[in-house]
Write a structure and sequence with these properties.
single chain; mainly alpha; 74% helix
Length: 266
Amino acid sequence: MLAIVQEFQSVIKWRELLWQMTSREIKARYKQSILGYFWVILNPLAQMLVMSFAFSVILRIPTNSASHIPYTLFLYTALLPWNLFSTSVTSSAMSLVNSAPLIRKIYFPRSILVISTIIAKLIDFAFALTVLIIFFIFFKIPITLNLLWVIPILLTQLIFTLGLSLFFAAANLIYRDIQYLLALIISLWFYITPIVYPADIVPNRFKFIFQLNPMSVFVNAYRQTVLGGKSPDLFSLFIALIVSFITLSVGLLYFKQRENTFADIV
């Protein structure tokens, strides 16, 4: 925990560089693009439409306890935080490699490269939320104060995401095939997380897999608060918070142990 606090203080000290790196990450991605930031909305929207057709029309997957909720909204509520998680981790894994010239030239907390990538993805997430708001208005979904639970859920998810991102960023710099392994892990992880299907249709003998998966907890919590108008399962969320801090501690420890060798490796 002390290491986390010290790293946080270090990042705050270099906050101007953090904002510059975040701005560079956002601008570089859509430079010379005709549609620009509209891709942030178009990508998850197209993904949601294709998946909705495949899983609700063809496979007819139910939404079970959220049966009054249209499948498109059921899917999109889970797809947005999942995309935030998956794109943050996969992009962060390449953040050190892509910033090799900068790492060689000057000293700064290398974690800034990872954090700026996640912040950029968080901004993308905020833009993509506009579609969800439109869906809420169109389907006349009531808004309750339980929606405020989204804030601590999102913060917990970001802690978990940062821990994994730090680990994979350092590991990928040393072992470049990590990026390919990570792509496989993320693909498999998607299907063991209840995104396209509700968690309550999972057979009891397999539910332990989902209980060990923090992303399952986060997805269910979002649906409970955003679609169900209820409070999330606080016990599950507390366990996810502990797992997230452990993940951050391990990821940061591995990152800091390798940090002094980054300039020699890139």
